[in-house]
Amino acid sequence: KTFCKIIIMRIIIATGNNDKFAEISNVLNEFGIASTAVNVSTAEHGSTLEAVVVNKARQAFFKIKKPLIVDDTGIYFTALKNFPGVESKRIFQRIGYEGLFQRIAGKNRDAMFRTLICYINGKTIKMFDGILKGIITEKVYEGGGEDMPYDRIFIPEGFDKPFCYFSIEEKNKLSHRAKAVRKFAEFFISVNSTT
Q1: Which positions are annotated as active-site residues?
Q2: What is the pLDDT of residue 6?
Q3: Alpha carbon of 88 to those of 24, 44, 76, 85, 97: distances in Å?
């Protein structure tokens, strides 16, 4: 008889956002990668998603000193020259749904989510991205994770319901974050597998 030994790989996800951790860990589980969330305080510096995510990864690695991934996501409104983009979280905290709706009123409502997952292990820094296109709604829907306010005003392309109505399993079939995590998982397995 031959016995198949299942090797479970592990990775730390540096986040204090429970909703993000649930989505990311759910996708990693598909690949047999176990994950732990570690809440590390990091400052978000940078004018691009790439700069922000690399800075966050470096700060987290400096504190934890173990291989880890961080995630950063922006939502980009086509009509507003990709505003709020890298500032999505801070813009929402400042102007809320009302301010966002005022800015896009009467304009094209196309938008896209973009996620970058950054892996760091002390020697290597690698980024993996995922994009999801859709439209901004004309009202705020109830539901979804507390830490994901844009899910209440975003309908993915090809669907007729807002992201906050999707179960985590439905969301992880198509989301920007899931796409980026799958790219990371394939890379992580390829560099950690021994034949």
Answers
A1: 72
A2: 57
A3: 19, 12, 8, 5, 12
